[in-house]
Amino acid sequence: MAGKWNTRSMVASNIKTVRAIEDDDSSKRRQIVDGARKVFMNLGFDGASMGEIARAAGVSKGTLYVYFADKNQLFEAIVDHVSAQEQLKAAFNLDPSRDTTTTLREFGQTYIRLLCRPEGGSAIRTVMAIAERMPDVGQRYYEHVLQSTIKRLAAYLDVQVANNALKIDNTELAAAQFMMMCQATLFLPFLFQAAPAPSDERIVQVIESATQMFLAAYQVKQN
Amino acid sequence: MAGKWNTRSMVASNIKTVRAIEDDDSSKRRQIVDGARKVFMNLGFDGASMGEIARAAGVSKGTLYVYFADKNQLFEAIVDHVSAQEQLKAAFNLDPSRDTTTTLREFGQTYIRLLCRPEGGSAIRTVMAIAERMPDVGQRYYEHVLQSTIKRLAAYLDVQVANNALKIDNTELAAAQFMMMCQATLFLPFLFQAAPAPSDERIVQVIESATQMFLAAYQVKQN
Amino acid sequence: MAGKWNTRSMVASNIKTVRAIEDDDSSKRRQIVDGARKVFMNLGFDGASMGEIARAAGVSKGTLYVYFADKNQLFEAIVDHVSAQEQLKAAFNLDPSRDTTTTLREFGQTYIRLLCRPEGGSAIRTVMAIAERMPDVGQRYYEHVLQSTIKRLAAYLDVQVANNALKIDNTELAAAQFMMMCQATLFLPFLFQAAPAPSDERIVQVIESATQMFLAAYQVKQN
Amino acid sequence: MAGKWNTRSMVASNIKTVRAIEDDDSSKRRQIVDGARKVFMNLGFDGASMGEIARAAGVSKGTLYVYFADKNQLFEAIVDHVSAQEQLKAAFNLDPSRDTTTTLREFGQTYIRLLCRPEGGSAIRTVMAIAERMPDVGQRYYEHVLQSTIKRLAAYLDVQVANNALKIDNTELAAAQFMMMCQATLFLPFLFQAAPAPSDERIVQVIESATQMFLAAYQVKQN
DNA sequence: CATGAATGAGCATTCATTCAT
DNA sequence: TATGAATGAATGCTCATTCAT
After folding, report:
1. Which residue is nearest to nucleotide E19 (CA to C1')?
2. Disulfide: which of A43, C15, D62, D155 matches A47 by Cβ 3.0-4.6 Å?
3. Topology of C2-68 in CATH?
């Protein structure tokens, strides 16, 4: 993957590569990425025009092409940027010393609140929409954002298994199961605009149910 | 839906209304819907051009506008058409007399195979992508396709609860939980093009795990 | 002019000519002409679509082409039809036995009221607009409608000259002068939508002034 | 007018405003206006296509939209531009010290020659044709071109009235009357393409007659 | 590096016209 | 005769991209 990136960058800007490496955050570049993020996430890849992006970024249209070879590459950069941001926001407390019930409960609530932010849906929608035409963009987003969260939860579960608190064969599957269960009746209606973002009350209920279900299946029975 | 269509047709052509009512599937109309479905689902709303749709449908661009007022209405018709198709394909055996384990296992497998068809992802992607700009399209798709399946499974669960085979407070939530769990590690990677459609073997494993988890939580314990 | 018409008709409909002569008013044809008149006069030649004309006429688009070879010929027929109607409406009392003052006064008032009807401007606008692209349409309209009125007034003046009531060298010029003077400050603002149709009061004033001016110039001084 | 333009330019490009203010006539803009004028005046609003205008202006279709928001606004600009040109061309000698007969005679001849230029009719036809759909375009043209000439002549008459050379109640009406009379038998046939532009000889005759008529009515009788 | 003027291919949509029935 | 389904060329307009400065 890293290899792919380098290849691409080199094609786009052979000379300035050296500079780009240490100057990935030249203020102009940052401006563009910030402006483009908003526009792409609100309007989707096709709905976003380079003109609007330029306006949102406060630069000229020409400048866009100084930093990015074309619309596709700008979009890829934005998705990677958003991926990084999402990961930062996914600040879950997975301290191995905390008890499973509390940890899962809090994790679930935080997770759903993250997904159901107004902007939360946009990134997922935007990336998913383009995944067929730009498969590696979809893949990178899945791996960096969704799968990485699964893995972090799985790592926590691994510890609990080792501690004999849980009994799980496949912790990555279990982590994914929990995360999916948490979404039940909440995220998809929100994503399809069939319902507004769920209330806190509703979130608490659903997460509670998911937590109980998870524990019923995976908690080591004490006698 | 039929009612809506009539309204629309009457605006376009008051005289042929009688014909239109019983001939919602005039072959030209069907041709267009079929062609448009492919193009829209592959390229998304913005990516699909009326020219390409016309070519795919084997009609002239002008003919598109004889049957549909504009691109939006053609798209809505396609989504409604796909919704109906998806529901037909969702031929789950939810016979109340069958035992819970088998029923859930088969339901889950059928469900995931449905989702992970090549075309399965496209519709979801395409509709979800447009949901922000065309909220009622997203809403109708969610209700007709996703929520309706949840409700059918919930109805089965209701019977099992009545039979004392299961103990569930909120069967709709439980149905959604099961369906989400079934997807764990399978559907999202497929949707984001981060993995190919899952193997049958993998599906069987994941569904088995989901089924066990569901029963562990909701099955009435016999002593 | 008659010759021209025949030539055109024969091109358009060689066989049905005989029928057309005696059946110029087949009800379908009349329907079409009536519908087309409204649409053409309201929207202009380019603004009118054959579809809208068909709807206004209550026939199918195809039927239009049964009676008229193309849009141009339909338009020409409409203009000729309107010309005939305008002439009928121009029911001026030019009885030679009436005195000049009254006759001119009434003629002027009737003339301006005719021009400043809501539909009065439309025909002039529509025909004038197309005159560059379809010169013979403009010419026929001018001759049948505008010039013919001039000639009728000129004929009245001829009689008054013969009666020694007026002294005019060129009665056709004098007639045109009077008709133009009557329009002063009234018709052009109306035609350019710079003012609404003039009030009756205003019309009376302007016509009075024009009449006095005409008499001052052309009335035989009695001593 | 300049004020309006600035507003429009600022919407399109906030940064180049300074340039735009003093560069209303950037050569590209002038090119477009010149090309568009020819095409609009020859073919009318609907008959003129943006493609043809682009070709006539020697720029690309896209460039048209850099300078004008849409076809309507380009048209309005052309009409305003033509209005200004027409006014410049209407260089009448209305020196108050010249005698009435000569002044009217020369004014009338110049006026008719102006109207009956090949391009003279086109602007009037084109603007009049659109006046129903774009009333303020018609209104502005009438006021800037036709009414402004009436007022200039009326101002001259005012002076003659003050000098006791003429006796006129309503000089604006009188000015309009004279201008209309001058057109008698000359302008309308030309406008409707029912006759070519009148010969100089004919113009002289008609203007002479109009002048005499005007004086007969309004000249102060010396005894 | 940054600009913004300029482009031309592409888009959704309209419409005069044809033709099988 | 009358229809209306079907066409395809043409239209107004947008936008990713280029390039001279």
Report:
1. C62
2. A43
3. Arc Repressor Mutant, subunit A (1.10.10)
